[in-house]
Amino acid sequence: MATEREPPPLGDAEQTDFKELEDGEDLFISTASTLESSPTSPEPASHPAEDICANSNGPQPAEISLDDDLEDLFAEATEEVSLDSPEREPILSDEPSPAITPVTPTALVTPRVEPKTIFVPAMFERSKEELEEEANGDSFDMEIVVSDPEKVGDGMNAYMAYKVTTKTSLTIFNENEFSVKRRFSDFLGLHSKLATKYMHIGYIVPPAPEKSIVGMTKVKVGKEDSSSTEFVEKRRAALERYLERTVKHPTLLHDPDVMQFLESSELPRAVSTQALSGAGILRMVNKAAEAVNKMTIKMNESDAWFEEKQQQFENLDQQLRKLHTSVESLVCHRKELSVNTAAFAKSAAMLGNSEDHTALSRALSQLAEVEEKIDQLHQEQAYADFYLFAELLSDYVRLLTAVKGVFDQRMKTWQKWQDAQAMLQKKREAESKLQFANKPDKLQQAKDEIREWEGKVQQGERDFEQISKTIRKEVGRFEKERVRDFKAVIIKYLESLVQTQQQLIKYWEAFLPEAKAIA
Amino acid sequence: MMDAGIEDNSNHNFSGYDVRVTDAAQNGDTFVYVIKSQQIPSDTEYRVEREFEDFEWLHHCLLTQEGVTGLHGIIFPPLPAKPGTFLSNSEAKTKKKIESLAMVDDWQMYCRALEEYLHLVTAHTVLIKNPAVHSFLKHRELPIKTKVKKGIFNKLTQAVEELRKEHHKDIDDFFQNERDSNLTLTAFTKAAVEKFLEIVLTEQKIAIACGHFSTALHLGIGQDDDPADYAFAKMCLKLSEVLDTVKKNFEKVAENDLNTLGFNLELHSRFQDAEKEMLFRRTCKLVDVETANKNLGQAKPHKKAAMEDIKKAADKEFDEISGMAKVEIQRYHRERVRAFQKALIELSDSQLQTARECCVELKQQLAEFKQLCAE
């Protein structure tokens, strides 16, 4: 246990910690997650010690084994534990390191940690938006790679196992680098759990990649052609993007299901995600029912922001779909070009072979080679078109569905509140009626019920306000993400275009002297 | 009026003429081509209007000229295929296969093909002497022509007889080799033309797709009040500019392909056919010679003299044809290699230039984009 203690990475973990604790109230109310879901609270308190070490002549302090401390901490802490709680320090200062002396956190500012606010109690007054900004502004110190698709099993029971490797310096995880094997249904299971936990309180949970019965069947049956390898690659990339998006969300990152998914070698099999299972069909039916319900909820929108946003997202959805169609057409033609170029390269080679004039023959063979290389270029560019653009666009179209879902949840929450109010009204009326009838026990019951429903109305209002607040924040985050994502992709895409041209220049520059040499 | 590119003919085998097909105009359901020519070193420029039918007439006259030694040993410059309607880009999208330049791109390419034909004719030392050429270039009206019959001289007729004669073994190694290599080269050249023109077509399709993508990016650009939407809109507009660049690039790439290697391959595919026809004519003559010899050997004494005469005539013709053919073949290969070289140089040159231009533009737009995002 006495290992080197290192300061947490550039502040990122801290902010998420604090944000997490603020949200912790929500989590604890509405989810079944246990106290373990709150992350490394010991972090901030470790700074004072760290700083002391930097100043002291003593040996470096030990690194806290977080698991043990987490358990201890939560055993003693209350739900709303404030970070500068005095309870923390004694625990930490029990660490077997002579150089550590407890110091009040507020006195210290560790140069390595950016947000000084960690040590300031007033931190809690900082808006969630500001924390968000910092969390997003710093480099997100976590890298997830999905790789090595492997077919496991035979026939229709076969499946693809993917290796999920996580590299991170976030201390909420046990190690810095670890990998596990997961299958597609595991990802779906994860999403299903997250959606159940978070969507109804307004969090935009990134959607999992889509099932494809046709594609998967080909793989199972063992069709070793390019279309099934393409399918697997497409899926692999989609799973990677899915995980990256999920962990970018500060709340979801610390969710125990997410952490378990990334870390633990064995995962209980998610059975209800099968496409044609009973659960699957039930889900479809529910979705349909929900759609119908949605149409009948007429909400008194007191906040124009929500209406505007919904319209805006509707427009965005349309635009993205159209763009996606355009890109797909482009991808298709580029692939065609690649095929045609390859065919011509072969023709040119044959022409060169049957040509008697030696210099011309050589030049034609060179031309064939150039065309082959250009064919490769076209293929690569087509992949760039596809994996950069088309997939990004379809990811966002599905994300927007999740966003819409969250807005719908808000309406449902509002409806619930309204229903509670209506019920309360009824109960009150019933009570006043009972006032004149002479039934004391019924009257008491009525009064009890009124109290019950008053509570429910209050809760409904609170829920509604909370979800509205959460959605605002989530939408803000989504908007930032969207701009950032597209910006990054477009830049990558432009760079790929430039690179293609540069390669073309190289090829033609090399060929020109060959052509001139035909005497 | 549309204008065809003016080709510099001075690189070619020297022609006493400077011929240009400068315009093409639709007249009912035919096209009328404006041909301007000038005999070097004279200053007089002639301008005539011709339809495709007139070209066919000219070709026929060339093939049937009387009194030319070894006429049938000439590899006649091939006439471009009869034009259909020139395909617009949208039609090109739906066409599955392109068989000739007459179907690709537009009238400009076709005019160039006709021009090339006339240049080749006027550059040929024997053909230029045909008075029909002068009529064609100078006279307002051409002599009344009967419907050109596709005779045996410019069209291989009965297929069975063709096959038999085509494979008739030659007495001369030089010619046998030439016939064999012609057979292979013709097949490969045709395949190469087809594939190459497919490339051009796909390049044009990509240009169109880029155009659509670019337009789609303009959608939804409206509300500027939301900062995310505004940033997004700015990015889309910039990306749209980039796609316009890509579109222009692909159009240029397709044009380069077509103007250089495309044109050359297509012309030489037809030339291979012309050589094949010439070799076939000679082979037919060879068969005649061998038949005459056989007849002479089998002839009854009183017919011997007549058979002798026939044999002598056949021999003479055959020798003349072979003589002309040899010269033509050598000239043909020289020309072919030279033209190929020119085309390949022009291809790589133009593509190199286009790639460089595009690269510069894209780099600039990339920098602008990064700048935009930093704001």
| Envelope shape of chain A | elongated
Averaged pLDDT of chain A, please? 73
| Major sheet details of chain A | 3 strands, antiparallel
* Series of secondary-structure elements of chain B, N-terminal to C-terminal: EEEHHHHHHHH
Strand proportion of chain B, as a percent range, falls in 5-15%
Strand order of the largest sheet of chain A: 3-4-5
Number of strands of chain B: 3
Name the quaternary structure: heterodimer
Number of helices of chain B: 8
Average of the residue pLDDT scores of chain B: 82
Number of strands of chain A: 5
Which structural class matches the secondary elements of chain B? mainly alpha
What does the model show?
The complex is a heterodimer of chains A (519) and B (375). Chain A is mainly alpha-helical and 519 residues long. Chain A has helices spanning 12-30, 42-55, 66-76, 88-93, 128-137, 184-198, 213-221, 226-248, 250-253, 256-263, 278-296, 304-353, 358-436, 440-516, and strands at residues 3-4, 62-63, 142-152, 159-168, 177-183. A three-stranded antiparallel β-sheet of chain A has the order 3-4-5. In chain A, helix 1 packs across helix 5 (128-137) and helix 13 (358-436) runs antiparallel to helix 14 (440-516). The radius of gyration of chain A is 30 Å and the shape is elongated. Chain B has eight helices and three strands; from the N terminus they run E-E-E-H-H-H-H-H-H-H-H. In chain B, strands 1-2-3 form a three-stranded antiparallel β-sheet. In chain B, strand 1 and strand 2 (30-39) form a beta hairpin. At the A-B interface, helix 12, helix 13 and helix 14 of A face helix 6, helix 7 and helix 8 of B.
